[in-house]
Design goal:
By secondary structure, the chain is of the alpha/beta class. The chain has a single domain, classed as Rossmann fold. Helix content is 44%, strand content 14%. It has helices spanning 25-35, 47-56, 74-87, 111-139, 161-181, 199-209, 214-223, 233-244, and strands spanning 10-13, 39-44, 64-68, 93-96, 142-147, 186-193, 255-258. The chain has a seven-stranded parallel sheet, with helices on both faces. Helix 2 (47-56) links the parallel strand 2 (39-44) and strand 3 (64-68). The N and C termini lie far apart (36 Å).
Length: 267
Amino acid sequence: MTTSRLEGRIAIVTGAGCVGTGWGNGRAVAVQLAREGARVLATDIDTGSLEETVAMAGAAGGNIEAFFCDVTDEASIRTALSHCETVLGAPDILVNNVGGSAPGGAAELSREAWDRQILFNLTSVFLTCKAVLPGMQARQRGAIVNLASTSGLRYTGAAQAGYAAAKAAVIQFSKVTAVQYAPYGIRVNTVVPGQLHTPMVENRLAGQRAGGNVEALLESRVKRIPLGFMGDGRDTAQAVAYLASDDARFVTGTEIVLDGGMTARCD
């Protein structure tokens, strides 16, 4: 359902492209916020993919401004923020969606791969919040939604120590930031997706975990989910839109877990 509950809001969504055709988390979030009335700065390092995001938004694409941003680079983040303020206005909403896993446990993961995982999944969240928070504090309002992963809550079937550690840290970073900035009218929450069926499954994870066998990977993922099916990026987008809106005005420092009951299982 499309509403106008974000009418007049300005949002920055990082990682709003997609690794393939379809509804990745960032793309779905950017489009959902735009459809609900927000003017969205959709950022990614893949500008071609951003163009597809705008096209898939249909009539709401007019509310989306695509812009290159490398969220591991402070200068790039400052440029994107400046562009947002100049073209759209000061952001009321920040959604940190950038992330990605690398296989390997503590002994197998190289130091370089570990550092990249922390930079990509955690430091990027810190850097974007660091850039946006002073302005939100001055305006006495704001909503930040960070995306983590159920890998940050429990072992989910694949050894990915760097990714799991970074995503667990995102959850705690969000809690600390939420409490610190609550007196300034800023809310900070986390969406924690589980076994979703996004384009990343076919384009990246199948090669990492199932020798390229997409069907085998999908079957193994569904078996972990009590509801018996996988959600997708649109489920993530609905949760983010709620947390970004005034419907969640009394919600901060917490998480919405989107996993079909997977982490509630004791086996």
